[in-house]
Design goal:
Length: 548
């Protein structure tokens, strides 16, 4: 297993970087009228234009060499073959099996996982059919009007993002809600307008021990029992998605109403499993399977296309180029579609929990950067908030602009404005505005020489800000599945180059441990532990002033 910095491609990239770092994309486009054709490609529904990046073909060739040198193809093959590439947890990484619509056998410990995957899909289909048709009755015999998903992290962000994205495909008489935060505001606000008689809870937790989810599940149970008054009501109003049968039973959920998944599905990669149940309830099982099919088609592309024609590989390598050579610390995700409102939050977990690591697979501390900070907002809102910094600030922020050519609505005028802004922003970020252009513009607008000299620098845009443009025809379940798989595999490519384990998350443990230790100190308003003076001081402040 090779560290990227020890490869010869890395050295080549360093000297190439010295040559290209000051090149302006404005000039690169002027010099090569074919740049768009060279640096764009399509696979299935996903069209990627990566020509507005600070690259030449030499850059890409060296990046592909890097991918070859770190044996990316072998690493991809290992994942698809079910090898235990999550080495610190000794687990396979098989979200690709969940959407393996070809149904070819995929083995874990010598056993084909596909029959189990298909059985759970069947169980989901039956359940969704019952809930959506009104055949699933609550304790008092009424059909379900509201489904509440109780989960956090991967058991919330993926299903929440997709359910919101596909809202146009969902019937209006069945509402799907998401509660994740342990802050009681989240669950109280959600439950205040619901009736226990017609509400069904999905407790979604791989471990079934996550503090926040279990607290919300207990509160939901109390709320239900307060009204319905009979423990037996729990089995008609609660189902679970988990790997932990024992804990599910302990909670009072009928194991018949438990949807299984497996330790080879990482939380942040789990929306394709039964964790996607709220999606399937909202849009129906057929559409859920279309989502899986779109992702599967992208999986096939990722594992079989040459690096030069491979969308996730290209996107992953571009990210390496900016993080490790340009030292970009962040990456913006900018969907120009309100339906993709939660995509940036979903990808924050996807990329930062996967690749926010500092230890190589061999256990050494890295001496290069890994995952950037992921952030973003839907366009055009972001333009009126943080785009100022992207255009004229001091930091390099690579960004992904994502849009659909055709909207799901018929408001043509709105959509044209949305797409005009999508195109204008990537153009403006790339081109910028020179001193001469700013000067000319101001004098054409009648500004005096003294005003021009006072305002000139404020009107200059350096440009040369890189972006990818990702275009799809329409937001459909299939297309969304393909888009999400692109990002999952992009994250895989980054992790492979950085030689880290993208599939564990040890870094979330310390805070959880300490919160468990501090909780009794708040409950009993007493300090039991030795803390640093700041933590002790804050604890004391809360305990002496809290009114609850
Ligand atoms: O805190 C991190 C994490 O373990 C995530 O990786 C996971 O998606 C989330 O918590 C929820 O975990 P669970 O599904 O076990 O409740």
């Amino acid at each position: 297993m090779q560290e990227p910095t020890n490869t010869s491609a890395w050295q080549v990239l360093w000297s190439h970087y010295q040559e290209i770092k000051h090149a302006h994309m404005r000039d690169l486009f002027r010099e090569d009228p074919g740049r768009f054709e060279v640096f764009s490609l399509q696979n299935g529904p996903v069209f990627l234009d990566y020509s507005k990046n600070r690259i030449s073909w030499e850059t890409m060739e060296s990046l592909f060499d890097l991918a070859r040198e770190i044996k990316l193809q072998d690493k991809i093959r290992s994942m698809f073959a079910g090898e235990k590439i999550n080495t610190t947890e000794d687990r396979s990484v098989l979200h690709i099996a969940l959407r393996n619509r070809s149904n070819r056998p995929i083995y874990v410990d010598g056993e084909d996982v596909m029959p189990e995957v298909n059985a759970v899909l069947e169980q989901m289909r039956e359940f969704c059919g019952k809930v959506r048709s009104g055949r699933w009755k609550g304790y008092t015999g009424k059909p379900v009007t509201d489904v509440v998903n109780l989960g956090i992290g991967g058991s919330d962000l993926g299903p929440r993002m997709v359910t919101r994205a596909l809202e146009d495909y969902a019937p209006p008489d069945l509402n799907v809600h998401f509660v994740s935060n342990v802050d009681a505001v989240d669950i109280s606000r959600t439950l205040q307008n619901l009736s226990p008689e017609t509400t069904l809870f999905i407790v979604a937790s791989k471990s079934f021990t996550t503090q926040e989810t279990m607290a919300n599940a207990r509160t939901a149970k109390q709320w239900l029992l307060k009204e319905l008054g009979d423990e037996r009501a729990v089995s008609e109003h609660f189902v679970a998605v988990s790997t932990n049968t024992e804990k599910v039973r302990e909670f009072g959920i009928d194991p018949e109403n438990m949807f299984r998944f497996w330790d080879w599905v990482g939380g942040r990669y789990s929306l394709w499993s039964a964790i996607g149940l709220p999606i399937a309830v909202a849009v129906g099982m057929d559409r859920f399977e279309e989502l899986l099919s779109g992702a599967h088609a992208m999986d096939e592309h990722f594992r079989s296309a040459d690096f030069e024609n491979n969308i996730p590989v290209i996107m992953g390598l571009l990210s390496i180029w900016y993080v490790n050579f340009f030292q970009a610390g962040t990456q913006a995700i900018l969907p120009y579609d309100q339906n993709l409102q939660y995509l940036p939050a979903y990808l924050q977990q996807g990329e930062m929990e996967s690749n926010g690591k500092r230890t190589t697979l061999a256990g050494d501390v890295v001496d290069y950067h890994t995952a950037p900070v992921i952030w973003g907002e839907p366009g055009t809102n972001g333009q009126h908030a943080f785009f100022q910094l992207m255009h004229q600030g001091t930091r390099l922020i690579p960004s992904d602009f994502i849009a659909f050519v055709n909207p799901l609505h018929s408001q043509q005028e709105h959509h044209e404005m949305l797409l005009a802004n999508f195109l204008a922003q990537t153009e403006a970020l790339m081109l910028g505005k020179t001193e001469e252009e700013a000067d000319r513009e101001m004098s054409e607008n009648g500004k005096s020489r003294s005003e021009i000299s006072r305002l000139l620098q404020h009107n200059v845009f350096p440009g040369n800000n890189p972006s990818n443009s990702v275009l799809l025809q329409k937001l459909t379940p299939y297309n969304l599945g393909a888009l999400l798989a692109v990002y999952e595999h992009k994250i895989f490519v980054q992790g492979a180059v950085w030689n880290i384990n993208s599939f564990d998350q040890w870094g979330v443990e310390l805070g959880k441990q300490l919160a468990k230790r501090i909780l009794p100190e708040l409950r009993e308003k007493k300090r039991f532990e030795d803390h640093d003076s700041s933590t002790s001081g804050l604890l004391e402040f809360i305990n002496t002033t809290a009114k609850l």
